[in-house]
């Protein structure tokens, strides 16, 4: 990518009307996100699709990095990725219980049959599990899904990246036996802590959300068992007294552990979640063959998400890093600055080499002074600047400096490549 003299700018950025801001912290956070996005050209919105985010090229780079990172994490923890349909006949939603308990928050499409855009992936994952004869030897079966989801949030509740109608979620479901529940939930909590640690997020709050007073399915005795199991896991992992209870805030099909983070403005956001579900396996008549050879054993379903909404996690990272993205996730990883026009061919050759390894490297060919171009690059958030002059070409090296350190290092193209690889692999 070439750097233009002025560069594109987002028309109207900074004049967003916040549809709902319950606190000054929420308003400050949303406005901060818009300011950073305007400078770095990350995302925009439009009233023709309220509650939906238009990720621009640089914002899409960050989103894709988050998704690929989570795919790698989930592979480490034994999940298999699936892709499921976006829209289903209401027959499915009635079977799962969502129609009776969630239909007001769903988008409907009416043709010959009435359809609903999916607000979550659990019913489709149950369908996949039910398509095959299952054995206890396969359990636990873990599915992950990054399909887009739609929830019909009230227009007054929409706010920036944190409250949207169309979003992406690192959705996952675990089908396991009763004696595997404890291990699977602990494993998921470990995945959550491991993931947040990469981003330098260590202040995590855990909440146990219990059975709703009215809207729930299943027997109270079953709910009590599920809540007791989640309490035991929280006590053994977070420690007694290090988590709180949210009475009546569980999903309609089961209790859950909610994970909350604070953003830079001290506002709490729910991100990760672990939900224990005895109801959907029963509604979908899920069975597997047990050690006794009988095909009458029913799996337990664990719902889990780590990022939660990727859009919301994106907003948290915007506040957390204030636009100074770590190299591995930065949509602008390096800028090459040729001193004058004669150095451009060498700059283009270096860009081609580094971009060939999927690094995001641009060239600033403008006739501005090196100082002006350097200042501009730092304001735009580039992690590294690479200067090329006569001496560099003669020595076969390049003058490299980081965003936060003016010290110049003379490095060959191979040394730059190795440094970039090391930064990506260590998530720095």
CATH superfamily of the largest domain: Bira Bifunctional Protein, Domain 2
Helix percent band: 25-40%
Indicate how many domains the architecture comprises.
Answer: 2
What's the total helix number?
13
Quantity of strands, as a count: 19
CATH topology of the largest domain: BirA Bifunctional Protein, domain 2
**β content, as a range?**
15-25%
CATH architecture of the largest domain: 2-Layer Sandwich
**What is the subunit arrangement here?**
single chain
Give the class from helix and strand content and strand pairing.
Answer: alpha+beta
Head-to-tail CA distance between termini? 23 Å
Rg over alpha carbons: 25 Å
- CATH class annotation of the largest domain: Alpha Beta
Major sheet details: 9 strands, mixed
Outline: elongated
Low-confidence stretches: 11-23
| Overall pLDDT metric | 89
What report would you give on this structure?
It contains 13 helices and 19 strands. The radius of gyration is 25 Å and the shape is elongated. The longest helix is centred in the first third of the chain and has 20 residues, at 57-76. The protein is 36% helix and 23% strand. Strands 3, 7, 8, 9, 10, 11, 12, 13 and 14 form a 9-stranded mixed β-sheet that branches. It has a 5-stranded mixed β-sheet with strand order 16-15-17-18-19, with helices on both faces. The chain has 2 domains: 24-321, 2-Layer Sandwich (BirA Bifunctional Protein, domain 2), CATH 3.30.930; 327-425, Anticodon-binding domain (Rossmann fold), CATH 3.40.50.800. The relative contact order is 0.12. Mean pLDDT is 89; it is low at 11-23. It has 428 residues and is of the alpha+beta class.
């Amino acid at each position: 990518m070439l750097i233009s003299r002025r560069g594109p700018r987002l028309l109207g950025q900074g004049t967003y009307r916040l549809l709902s801001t319950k606190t000054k912290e929420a308003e400050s956070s949303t406005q901060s996100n818009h300011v950073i996005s305007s400078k770095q050209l990350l995302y925009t919105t439009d009233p023709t699709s309220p509650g939906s985010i238009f990720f621009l090229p640089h914002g899409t780079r960050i989103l894709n990095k988050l998704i690929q990172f989570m795919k790698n994490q989930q592979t480490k923890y034994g999940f298999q990725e699936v892709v499921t349909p976006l829209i289903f006949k209401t027959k499915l939603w009635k079977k799962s219980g969502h129609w009776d308990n969630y239909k007001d928050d769903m988008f409907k499409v009416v043709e010959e049959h009435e359809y609903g855009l999916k607000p979550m992936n659990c019913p489709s994952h149950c369908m996949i599990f039910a398509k095959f004869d299952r054995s206890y030897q396969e359990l636990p079966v873990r599915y992950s899904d990054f399909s887009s989801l739609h929830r019909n949030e009230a227009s007054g509740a929409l706010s920036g990246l944190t409250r949207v109608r169309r979003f992406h979620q690192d959705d996952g479901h675990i089908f396991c036996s009763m004696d595997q529940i404890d291990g699977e939930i602990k494993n998921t909590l470990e995945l959550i802590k491991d993931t947040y640690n990469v981003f330098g997020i260590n202040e995590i709050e855990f909440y146990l959300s219990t059975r709703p007073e009215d809207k729930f399915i299943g027997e109270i005795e079953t709910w009590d068992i599920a809540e007791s199991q989640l309490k035991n896991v929280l006590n053994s992992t977070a420690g007694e007294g290090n988590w709180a209870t949210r009475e009546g805030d569980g999903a309609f099909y089961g209790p859950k552990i909610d994970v909350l983070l604070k953003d830079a403005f001290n506002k709490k956001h729910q991100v990760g979640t672990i939900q224990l579900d005895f109801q959907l396996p029963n509604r979908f008549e899920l069975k597997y063959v047990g050690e006794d050879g009988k095909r009458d054993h029913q799996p337990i379903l664990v719902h889990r998400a780590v990022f939660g909404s990727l859009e919301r996690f994106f907003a948290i990272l915007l506040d957390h890093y204030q636009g100074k993205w770590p190299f591995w996730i930065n949509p602008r990883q390096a800028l090459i600055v040729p001193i004058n026009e004669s150095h451009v061919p060498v700059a283009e050759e270096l860009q081609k080499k580094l971009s060939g390894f999927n690094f995001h490297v641009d060239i600033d060919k403008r006739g501005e002074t090196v100082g002006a171009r350097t200042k501009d690059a730092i304001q735009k958030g580039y992690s590294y600047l690479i200067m090329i002059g006569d001496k560099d070409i003669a020595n076969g090296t390049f003058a490299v400096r980081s965003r936060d350190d003016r010290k110049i290092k003379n490095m060959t193209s191979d040394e730059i490549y190795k440094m970039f690889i090391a930064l990506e692999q260590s998530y720095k």
